[in-house]
Recover the amino acids of this structure.
């Protein structure tokens, strides 16, 4: 991000301003009569699309009107890598969650898997649109502007952890599910920081959501299988932890143009904090000829007045 001018709000505060504007827009829509929970088709609530509209509007206000920078600087630039990251993220998200389900069904519950499949109905495109809208909305809320602002304010590691905690507790159900959601948020944040683009985390988020809601399995036996939530959430957390390690080791590289935008608008604060203090310029006080104190630049700054 550009250098903060005197009097501008600090970047950590801008993250909270982002959420504040979002809630203000949502409240305004409610006052105007918007019904967030009116059902269009089964399991396809207007809430998802209102949320996407609010997230996109807030991102536009903060980037264009507050920071005076392009919206694509949030990682939304469309390039040759965009469809690759989107498709790769979707396929990996689908595959990872399907592997988790196969493990739970075959290894934990000792059921024979005949064939995995995904059922498609006339409403399937609406379900796909809903899951993609959810992924795009949550990435705009929890990554993009907020994560960039916190990285500039406090550094990459604490920013990723703080955003992931907020993401996890916004999905609070029980502590196992919350831990799984936090790990999921960390993985998406690592994807975002390493590629400096939202398309890979959006794709992975979309694939994961679709697999968790739309995947079905042919099982041996006539009795339906009720998968316990505890084993599901714990397995998710373990697999996601391995995914985070793998994402840190993979040779992910941003597109040069994405890197240029990131370097221009995101200035990571040094971490840990003592590095920040060590890198701050300081002056040395030396006695002046009149008995007062005179300030001289510290070593390494050079003498500007030397002939």
């Amino acid at each position: 991000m550009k250098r903060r001018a005197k009097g501008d709000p600090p970047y950590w505060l801008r993250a909270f301003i982002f959420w504040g504007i979002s809630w203000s827009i949502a409240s305004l829509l409610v006052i105007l009569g918007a019904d967030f929970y009116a059902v269009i088709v089964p399991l396809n609530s207007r809430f998802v699309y209102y949320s996407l509209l609010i997230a996109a509007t807030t991102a536009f206000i903060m980037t264009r009107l507050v920071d005076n920078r392009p919206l694509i600087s949030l990682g939304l630039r469309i390039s040759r890598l965009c469809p690759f990251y989107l498709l790769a993220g979707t396929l990996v998200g689908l595959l990872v969650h399907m592997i988790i389900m196969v493990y739970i069904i075959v290894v934990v519950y000792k059921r024979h898997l005949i064939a995995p499949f995904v059922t498609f109905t006339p409403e399937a495109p609406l379900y796909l649109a809903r899951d993609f809208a959810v992924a795009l909305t949550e990435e705009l809320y929890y990554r993009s502007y907020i994560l960039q602002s916190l990285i500039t304010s406090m550094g990459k590691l604490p920013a990723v952890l703080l955003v992931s905690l907020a993401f996890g507790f916004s999905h609070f159900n029980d502590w196992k599910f919350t831990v799984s959601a936090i790990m999921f948020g960390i993985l998406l944040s690592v994807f975002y920081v390493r590629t400096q683009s939202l398309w890979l985390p959006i794709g992975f988020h979309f694939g994961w959501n679709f697999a968790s809601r739309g995947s079905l399995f042919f099982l041996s036996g006539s009795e339906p299988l009720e998968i316990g939530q505890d084993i599901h959430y714990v397995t998710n957390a373990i697999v996601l932890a391995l995914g985070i390690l793998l994402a840190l080791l993979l040779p992910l590289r941003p597109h040069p143009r994405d890197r240029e935008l990131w370097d221009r608008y995101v200035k990571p604060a040094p971490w840990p904090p003592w590095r920040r203090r060590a890198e701050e310029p300081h002056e040395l006080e030396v006695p002046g000829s009149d008995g007062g104190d005179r300030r001289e630049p510290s070593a390494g700054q050079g003498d500007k007045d030397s002939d």
